[in-house]
Amino acid sequence: MKRAFCILLALATVALLGAQTITHGIALGWTWSGTGAATYNIYRATVAGAEAQPPYAAGVTGGTGPCVEGAASIPNPCWTDPAAVVGTEYFYTVTAVVGGIESVPSAEVHAQIALPNPVTNPQTAIH
Q1: CATH number of the domain within which 70 lies
Q2: What pTM does this model have?
Q3: Across-strand partners of 14?
């Protein structure tokens, strides 16, 4: 029966809906087309296509509600990368884990927390 389960899991997919920068990091939202209680593995890299084992975050449950900040809402399941560094572009994929078996990775998405705009102080400007 385990073999049939593997085939069904391979046909189910994680659809990573996107990455959005928020005040305290980068938030990811996705959907899972499979059945059964899944946990998720998050893979992160600073180069496109370079996500590799081990997962950056393993056993993520995705929470019980959408990640919300202001007017922005990211669907559940979602996860926030609290260690994203300003100015660094990150690439992410997500997999589902059901019964100890990991799905194929989602399509890759990327996000970057932008550098703040410099503020010009007129009192220190050179004339």
Answers
A1: 2.60.40.10
A2: 0.76
A3: 32
Residue 83 lies in a domain: yes
Q: Is 77 contained in some domain?
A: yes
pLDDT digits (tens, 9 = 90+) for 102-125: 999 999 999 988 776 655 554 544
The closest of 93, 121, 119, 97 to 106, measured between CA atoms, is: 93
Q: How many other CB atoms sit within 10 Å of the CB of residue 100?
A: 6
| Tokens standing for residue 63 | 């929470």
CA distance 94 to 107: 8
68-102 pLDDT, tens digit per residue, is: 665 556 667 888 888 899 889 999 999 999 988 89
Give me the residues paired with residue 32 across strands: 14
- Asked if the structure places residue 127 within a domain, the reply is no
Does residue 105 sit within a domain? yes
Spatial CB neighbours of 110, under 8 Å, sequence gap ≥ 6: 19, 48, 89, 90, 91, 92
d(CA 65, CA 126): 51
Q: What is the CA radius of gyration of the chain?
A: 18
Please state, in angstroms and rounded to a whole number, the distance separating the CA atoms of residues 33 and 94.
13
